[in-house]
Amino acid sequence: MAHGPAHQHAHEHNDTEIDWADMAEHLQTQAELFTPLHEHALAWLGGKQTEPGLIVDAGSGPGVVSCQLAEAFPGARVVAVDGSEPLLELARARAERLGVADRFATLAGELPEVMADLDYPADLIWASHSLHHIGDQQAAIAAYAERLSMGGTLALVEGGLPVRFLPRDIGIGRPGLEARIDAVQTDWFTEMRASLPGSVPVTEDCRTLMTNAGLKPSGTRTFLLDLPAPTPDRARAVAADTFERVRDKLADHLDAEDRTTLDRLLDPNDEASVHQRPDLYVLAARTVHTAVRTG
User: Which of 151, 251, 142, 132 is nearest to 196 (CA)?
Assistant: First the structure.
């Protein structure tokens, strides 16, 4: 059950099955781009859960944030949990490169059931944009709560705002392209949720869901990633990959003018493309909800 740093996970509209391993490079690059946001989020979290012994990254993907957790909490052991073994291989290699492998382990299996295989309760469970890929979100949070130590914290990263790369009017095509892409992705997300095994409709209120699982909500905060133009090459790469996936998977749900605009945005030889245009930026918001096990 890999996660991506955004609600925008290269969603296939006609096939709600996601090939997470195929997305490995995109997941890594995007998570690396979001490093400043995660640094601020983990610093905030460190004030709530001091000196955790065991941290679990539930839905770790290629382990970019897992390794940030290891660096932010140098006394902790970190376990990256994911359903994709190829992504966990990348996580282990990253931990080795960054010198945290001695405190780093992986656990392969489907969430939330695989959490039962942890050796001992976690002091901090970080679940970033992985919960919404589990059919019964309330049951998943209850399973996480059971694997927390007394006084342990569950941190859910859900919600926030879609990433923005471009002005409303980009000088080509009809203004408001990203808003229309958002609408298509919202429809896909609804279909994806409905198609998950054991899918249960639920109001997406994290505080209530955590309270229902017997946890005590301890805070909610939204963190920004603000990379104004001109952006680094990494941001251009993420923008290009994001729009390419939209074109490949969702373009039939956009009109012909928007498809032409996407083609131009992705043409490296076009001055209007994300590869060349001077007004490309990155602005995103991620919301972290925390709750503590008190009984």
Answer: 132
Angle made by CA atoms 215, 217, 219, in degrees to the nearest 5: 150
Residue with tokens 């976690």: 122
Helix (H, G, I), strand (E, B) or coil at 4: coil
Classify residue 173 as left (phi > 0), alpha (psi -120 to 50) or beta. left
8 A C-beta contact, residue 227 and residue 37: no
Q: Provide the CB-side half-sphere exposure for 183 (13 A, CA).
A: 7
CA distance 180 to 15: 20
User: What is the distance between the alpha carbons of residues 29 and 99, in angstroms, rounded to a whole number?
Assistant: 20
Tens-place pLDDT, residues 193-228: 999 999 999 999 999 999 999 999 999 999 999 999
Q: What angle do CA 141, 126, 27 make, to 5 degrees?
A: 115
Cα-Cα end-to-end distance for the chain: 28
CB 128 within 8 A of CB 157: yes
Q: Any idea what DSSP says for residue 280? A: -
| Integer Cα distance of 154 and 218 in angstroms | 10
My answer on whether omega of the bond before 230 falls inside 30° of 0, hence cis, is: yes
What are the residues whose beta carbons fall under 8 Å from the beta carbon of 66, sequence distance 6 or more?
57, 60, 78, 80, 91, 94, 95, 104
- Do β-strands 77-82 and 54-58 pair in parallel, antiparallel, or remain unpaired? parallel
> Going by C-beta distance under 8 Å and a sequence separation of 6 or more, which residues neighbour residue 35?
64, 68
Count of residues for the chain?
295
Residue with tokens 């195929």: 22
| SS3 call for 136 | coil
Condensed to tens digits (0 to 9), the pLDDT of residues 225-239 reads: 999 999 999 999 999
Q: Over the stretch 96-122, which tens digit does the pLDDT of each residue have?
A: 999 999 999 999 999 999 999 999 999
